[in-house]
Write a structure and sequence with these properties.
The complex is a heterodimer of chains A (335) and B (291).
Chain A (H helix, E strand, L loop, with lengths): L5 H15 L3 H26 L7 H17 L8 H20 L4 H21 L1 H4 L5 E2 L8 H23 L1 H11 L1 H6 L4 H27 L1 E2 L1 H4 L2 H15 L6 H17 L5 H9 L4 H10 L1 H15 L3 H4 L1 H8 L8
Antiparallel strand pairs in A: 1-2
Helix pairs in contact in A: 1-7, 2-7, 2-10, 2-12, 2-13, 3-4, 3-5, 3-10, 3-12, 4-10, 7-8, 7-10, 8-10, 12-13, 12-16, 13-16, 14-15
Chain B lengths: L1 H31 L6 H19 L7 H20 L12 H21 L4 E2 L8 E4 L2 E4 H23 L1 H11 L1 H6 L4 H23 L4 E2 L4 H15 L4 H21 L5 H15 L5 H4 L2
Antiparallel strand pairs in B: 1-4, 2-3
Helix pairs in contact in B: 1-5, 1-6, 1-8, 1-9, 1-10, 2-3, 2-4, 2-8, 2-9, 3-8, 5-6, 5-8, 6-8, 9-10, 9-11, 10-11
The chains are: A mainly alpha (335), B mainly alpha (291).
């Protein structure tokens, strides 16, 4: 059987990329992309493959992030222990949550995850003796250079993609998809749907929790508003999933890349291009334009959601054959 | 005892407004079968319309109802017609893509409001904003009482519309069984468009009525969307009578939570109740009403 060489080429490229891109800013963006690959893969496993839409990915992300931060601020342990522990404790949260809430189906379950997210955010804000509330927690960064973080993030991204790939090739994967397609039919075929949905949720929570712990270690600062954010984490996770491709292995990779790029293009005004135009031409209204564009990244997310759902409901990877057909129609006649 | 009664009154008055928010959501839920996560953002848009009319034309907030409700009706109609209805023909893996679409709409509405009005907190100050009258030592906020009365009026009109008119019957028919309704010659696409408009119009009324005693900024939609779905779940999805009870329950729970547990816990109480209802009475209060 011929093994596809694409993933290995990609891996090789990702391994040497930071050595070529010496600029700290681009390395920072790559780390963010890799973090989102892990979150997106986690989201995709439970939502894309198992069909239980997770609206509150930030619940697990924030929990992982707070685990790492509290280890360092309260127990004086290195925050790096948060990587395994954040994942495991996220599973410990996902387990009772799933056990209780998997009785709910479809949109009900999605809303329950949203409620979990909100509850955690409120608790993290109110419980000031533990979490310092809105002040947040500061964790000393271990490395000054971004390279170590890059390779840790890469390892986590690879771990998540390989995990999802392995799971989806195994018997579990078929069970997950059968639950997504028709839960009642799956149940009547003798699949313990609760058990397999739990399994899917726990793996997802583990991956997302690790990504949260990575965030704490890398950013060095967290507060409830950022790590339990509905817009910046939960919705972004959904976007990474649906833009890249729901229910595809490499969808989150593509989605993470596009979403981080979109976010940064708007936040920096086209990577400083607008600023440059403003300076070189001296137009007074350019500063206003830059201000608007830098505020518009959430708007661009919203428009992206609408456009992707309307025209590419299965994401870029999922609808790739469709895109290719419409892009290269002139070259190749339709078969 | 006085504190208890005062809390009760405040909770009921607030619950009335919540019921109005929940009614629109539950109508949409019943007919479309989706949760409209842009509901609070519709309310935000209505509040900005009211604010603009008050600020630039000096109109009384209650007068602006005649403008804010029809404009939101139109907005709902357009969104349903051009963004949500086309999705029904699209083949996709995720069945929830209509819900995700409403999230996208919510983000776009919020950001457009931020473009136009910036992120500053705005408020509409009228003579009755902070005035109150007293009945037996219990204070009633004038604005909230007016809002409560208007809510009752709108609710009764809505029920009359749903029960007595042909259009209302069609809406209920689609809500009960969309395919059977289509076989009976009802254009369910059109009914969905109208229902979305009515839902948006109802929440617009809630927004306009709330504005004199509340403040306004672009992100205000999110918390109200969450409240709306808590109410809808409490009441049982798609149940109009349930939504009224759901609204009152949430209003009372928040009010008592704020008085007896602490102001910080106001939002948390609602969420905890939401999870408890999901767990112990899935289907919500609909179970007890049979409507």
């Amino acid at each position: 059987m011929k093994r596809p060489s694409g993933p290995f080429l990609l891996l090789g490229l990702l391994l040497i990329l930071p050595l070529m891109l010496r600029d700290a800013y681009y390395q920072h963006l790559m780390i963010l992309v890799l973090m989102w690959v892990a979150i997106g893969s986690g989201w995709n496993l439970i939502s894309g493959f198992t069909g239980q839409v997770l609206f509150g990915a930030a619940a697990f992300f924030g929990f992982g992030a707070y685990t790492a931060a509290l280890l360092s601020s309260k127990l004086g342990v290195s925050a790096w222990w948060g990587l395994p522990l954040g994942g495991i404790l996220s599973v410990a949260i996902a387990f009772p949550f799933g056990w209780i809430c998997f009785r709910l189906r479809g949109p009900y379950f999605a809303l329950a995850t949203l409620a979990l997210n909100e509850i955690f955010r409120h608790v993290a804000t109110i419980w000031e003796s533990l979490t310092d509330g809105m002040i947040g927690i500061l964790v000393m960064q271990t490395f000054i250079s971004k390279l170590p973080y890059y390779y840790v993030a890469l390892a986590i991204a690879i771990l998540s993609i390989v995990t999802v790939d392995l799971v989806m090739r195994s018997r579990w994967g078929y069970y997950f998809v059968s639950i997504r397609e028709d839960q009642d039919a799956a149940e009547s075929m003798g699949i313990d749907t609760l058990y397999y949905k739990m399994l899917s949720l726990c793996i997802s929570a583990f991956l997302i929790g690790i990504a949260g712990a990575l965030y704490t270690n890398y950013m060095g600062f967290i507060d409830p508003k950022v790590v339990f954010s509905l817009h910046e984490i939960s919705i972004m996770a959904i976007l990474v999933g649906i833009v890249g491709g729901v229910g595809t292995i490499y969808g989150p990779l593509v989605g993470a890349f596009i979403m981080v790029a979109v976010q940064e293009i708007f936040r920096t005004g086209g990577f400083g291009v607008l600023h440059f135009i403003g300076q070189s031409t001296g137009w007074p209204f350019m500063s206003g334009v830059i201000k608007y564009v830098s505020e518009a990244h959430v708007l661009s997310f919203g428009i992206l959601v609408i456009v992707v759902i309307l025209f590419l409901p299965n994401g870029i990877v999922g609808d790739w054959s469709l895109i290719r057909k419409s892009l290269f129609k002139s070259k190749k006649p339709a078969v | 005892m006085e504190v208890f009664l005062q809390t009760l009154v405040a909770g009921v008055l607030k619950g009335g407004l919540y019921a109005l928010i929940g009614l629109g959501m539950t109508l949409i839920m019943g007919v479309m079968g989706i949760i409209n996560l842009a509901h609070g953002q519709f309310m935000m848009v209505a509040m900005y319309i009211t604010y603009a009319l008050f600020h630039f034309f000096g109109l009384d907030p209650y007068t602006t109802l005649i403008i804010s409700m029809p404009s939101l009706f139109l907005l709902g109609v357009l969104i349903q017609k051009y963004l949500l209805n086309p999705l029904m023909k699209v083949e996709s893996i995720l069945p929830e893509n209509q819900v995700l679409m409403t999230v996208g709409i919510a983000m776009v509405l919020t950001e457009i409001a931020r473009f136009i009005f910036s992120s500053n907190y705005l408020s509409v100050r009228t003579s009755y904003s902070s005035s109150a009258f007293y009945v037996g030592g219990i204070s009633f906020s004038v604005a909230l009482t007016v809002a409560f009365g208007f809510t009752c009026f709108l609710t009764i009109s809505l029920f009359w519309f749903l029960i007595k008119t042909d259009l209302g019957r069609s809406i209920r028919a689609v809500s009960q069984d969309s395919e059977a309704a289509e076989l009976m010659g009802i254009d369910s696409g059109r009914i969905k468009v109208i229902t979305m408009g009515i839902g948006a119009g109802l929440v617009a009324a809630a927004g306009t009525l709330l504005l004199p005693i509340y403040y306004l900024f672009p992100d205000i939609g999110g918390p109200f969307t969450r409240k709306a779905f808590i109410i809808t779940i409490l009441g049982g999805l798609g149940s109009t009578v349930g939504a009224i009870f759901g609204g009152l329950t949430l209003g009372l729970a928040e009010s008592f939570g704020a008085t007896y547990i602490g102001m910080d816990f106001e939002d948390l109480v609602g969420l905890v109740i939401f999870l408890l209802v999901l767990l112990f009475i899935p289907g919500g209060f609909r179970r007890f009403t049979k409507v």
